[in-house]
Amino acid sequence: xxxxxxxxxINAMGLRAEESSARAKRPIWTLNKTLSKAGRTVHDWNPxxxxxxxxxxxxxxxxxxxxxxxxxxxxxxxxxxxxxxxCKGDLINGARHNPELxxxxxxxxxxxxxxxxxxxxxxxxxxxxxxxEQGNLFTTNREETQ
Length: 146
Fold this sequence. Notes:
Layout: E1 8-12, H1 21-24, E2 29-31, E3 41-45, H2 53-62, H3 69-72, H4 88-97, H5 99-112, H6 122-127, H7 137-145
Parallel strand pairs: 1-3
Antiparallel strand pairs: 2-3
């Protein structure tokens, strides 16, 4: 920003209220006091805060675009492959599509004695019984909007 002479930035994020109670409390527009300094003003903007999951996928489709491929294979949310905030299904999906990486994480947990998921190892999470396939958000929401 500094090199371009910009003093105003808008940090647009895709956070939605229905994703969690904490996200539901976030404002749609707010001054980011942490990043606003040295003459720079930064605002955080959540333009799809009030949208449902179905509205997100419908908008992507109407725009002639495709959602990121991980949604088609079952992810509810995207972040790191084995995000500490990921749901069980996303972790299983990540391991299914990245088995070598899952093995490295599990080996690291064994070697260090530390776990990534609140005193639960990735290995234990992946070995828990899972419910029958319930479809994924991409196909479920496409059906809801048609």
